[in-house]
Amino acid sequence: MAKVLIAPSKYLQGAGEMNNLGTYAEKSGSKALILISKGGHKRIGAQIEASFEGKDCEIMFDFFNGECSKVEINRLVEIVKANGIDLVIGIGGGKIFDTAKAVAYYTEHPVFVVPTIASTDAPCSALSVIYTEEGVFEEYLFLPANPNLVLMDTDIIVKSPTRLTVSGIGDALATYFEARACQQSDAISCAGGKTTEAAMAIAKLCFDTLLAEGVKAKIALDAGACTPAVEKIIEANTLLSGIGFESAGLAGAHAIHNGMTCLEECHHMYHGEKVAFGTLVQLVLEDVSEEELDEIVSFCIEVGLPVTMKELGVEELTDEKCMAVAELACADNDTLHNMPFEVTPASVAAAIKAADAIGHYYLGE
Fold it and tell me: Are 8 and 24 in contact (CB under 8 A)?
């Protein structure tokens, strides 16, 4: 099987780039559907409209209903068809991007992804994660192409809560470890081929950037400042992690996240926060060295990522809850089987319990 690397057609990152959205859009379509949350529209709707003034592209806003579900995707597909839309633009967070990408795929139109936060690596990928209307993971929808444009306005992202960017660090933290596992197991990546050396180098650069710049970026974000460290973390969270996970592969950490969707106590937590804990579980499954485990747990604590299930909302971690997460994580259609050894619900449940205990140990609890 061939090695494959895929990426978005264009990635733009800089201050004030939202003001240029209309200029980019008129080159790709004559009428755009802008999928955004009600809160997002209230904050930046006027800025978006201003960017389209005098441009040869009409816009139509529609408010996202909260889940990237088949029901929501089908609703928006009908809106696109009924209104002569020929460009789909998702503005906001990960589930909006995934929905916009799916709608563009089913209607055969280009798609722009415009994050207002740097909380996941979803923007760059040719992938939509489909959930039930209740928020439980259902399946991955693999798409034939990456977004036509990913636009990151750092002015807007810096104004978002620091916790969201830290969550993105948690999502990106898994990239290298999952890539490493997929390379060892010779797994097929999300890009539909074997891992390239370029993808591994990007995944490693992502990890190195997080450790070198993560704490500095968090401190700067808490102060409302966009520093070089913040710019590097935005790129790592979005571009490096996006290309890294997709072209190198997913393994244990994201499967554990998907397993946690069965626990209602965790639903209020962000994707990357759950993925960060999933990374600890994967490292326990791999029985990594004490030095490597110490580096990752200590980093998570310093940057503000959860290292226990209690921090994720689970007040009492029972054997039954561990097994429920493990069984869902071990589903045939999930990526836990990309690990370079056999995994079972029993071994995963044990790793969840152990990772949780390690987290409590490091927190002195």
Answer: no
Q: Could you tell me the pLDDT band of residue 119, with boundaries at 50, 70 and 90?
A: very high
What is the band of 135 on the pLDDT scale with cuts at 50, 70, 90? confident
Joined together, the tokens standing for residue 87 give 């460009």
The Cα-based distances of 23 to 61, 80, 359 in angstroms read 17, 21, 48
Burial of 135 (0-12, 13-18, 19+ CB in 10 A): middle
Rounded alpha-carbon distances, angstroms, from residue 149 to 41, 222, 251, 303, 309: 20, 29, 27, 30, 36
Q: Say how far apart CA 40 and CA 350 lie, in whole Å.
A: 41
Residue with tokens 């441009």: 55
**How many angstroms separate the CA atoms of 101 and 226, rounded?**
29
**End-to-end alpha carbon distance in the chain:** 48
Q: Where are the beta strands (DSSP E) in the chain?
A: 11-14, 31-36, 58-63, 87-92, 111-115, 127-131, 137-142, 149-153
Q: Which residues contact 142 (CB under 8 A, 6 or more apart)?
A: 126, 127, 190, 192
Phi, psi of 127 (to 5 degrees): -155, 135
From CA 100, how far away is CA 316, in angstroms rounded? 37
User: Which residues make Cβ contacts (< 8 Å) with residue 152, sequence separation at least 6?
Assistant: 11, 12, 13, 14, 17, 114, 115, 118, 123, 234, 238
- Give the whole-angstrom CA distance, residue 117 versus residue 109: 24
Which of these, 234, 243, 241, 246, lies nearest to 12 by C-alpha position? 234
Checking 69-75 for CB contacts under 8 A at 24+ apart, the result is 69/130, 69/131, 69/132, 69/133, 69/138, 70/130, 70/138, 71/133, 72/99, 72/133, 73/99, 73/102, 73/103, 73/106, 73/130
pTM (two decimals) = 0.92
- Which active-site residues does the annotation give? 171, 254, 257, 271
Which SS3 state, helix, strand or coil, does residue 74 take?
helix
* pLDDT confidence of residue 278: 98
Q: What is the DSSP letter of 339?
A: S
Q: What is the CA radius of gyration of the chain?
A: 20
The Cα-based distances of 177 to 10, 208, 244, 307 in angstroms read 26, 12, 10, 17
